[in-house]
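A student in our group prepared the protein record below, which I am reviewing. Thanks in advance; the entry in question is below.
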Amino acid sequence: MWMLGAVLAFSSMAVAGRAVSFELDTFEIMMYRSMIGLCLVVSVAGITGHYRQITTRSPATQLIRNIFHFSGQNLWFYAITVIPLAQVFALEFTAPLWVLILSPLVLGERLTKMRVLAAIIGFIGILIVARPSPETLSLGTIAAAAAAIGFAGSILFTKRLTRSETLTCILFWMTLSQSIFGLLCAGIDGDIALPSLASAPWLLVIACAGLTAHFCLTSALSIAPATLVAPVDFTRLPLIAIIGLLVYNEPIDAMVILGAAIIFGANYLNLWSETSKRR
C-alpha cells in the first residue's frame, strides 16, 4: 500500500509538472515546489517535535546531495514537457544502475561480477529506449538520461547521510537549499514569473506529491524487502503510459516498454543477488 501511494504520487507530479510548464520554467517550478515543501516540513516537524532532529553535522554532504537532486529534478521537469511520459519514466529507472556504477567511488562498495552484469543488461535497455541516432536522439532523451544520473547521485549521498541523520533533517536541508538554488537560478535573468490562479493548485500538487512519494517509498522499504518493493514501483511505467495515451494522446511505444522491462530486469537481478547474499 505504501508503494502504491508512491506510484500515484510520482505519476501525479509528472502530470502537474506538465500542466505548469507552459507558464513557468523548470527553475521557477523547483523554487515554488521547494518553498512550499519547506513550509510543510517545518510545520510537520514543529507539530511532531521532530525539529530537534535537524542538525548541522554534515553540511558538505547535504550540499552535494542537494546539488545532484536539484540538477536531476530540473532535467526531469524539462524532459516531461518534450518527450512522452513513458519514455521519461523508463529512463528514470536507470538511476539504480548508475548507483551500482558510482557506489565504489562514493560509498567504497565493491563492484561485483553480478553488479557489472546488471549494469551491462541495463545499458542494453537504455539503448532500446533511447535508440540513439541522428533521427531519434533529442534533448529530451538526453535530459531524461542525465536526470537519472542526478537522482543516482542523490541516492548515494542520501545513503551516506542516513548513517547519521534522520529523514526530517534530510528533507529540511533539501527543501531549504533547493529553495535558494531555485531562487538564484530563476532570478538570474531578473524575471521571476508569479504563478497564476490556475497554476497555483498544480504547484501545490507537485510539492505535496514529491514529499509524499519519498515518504511512502521510505516507509515501504522500512517494512518490506527491496525485492518486493521494486516490482510495485515498476507499475509506474504502464500507469504513466496509459495516462499519456488518455490525457495527451501519446502512443504507447512497444520498444519503450521492452527497454524498460530489460532495465527493470537488470535492477531486479541485482536486488535478488544482494538479498540472496545477505541470507
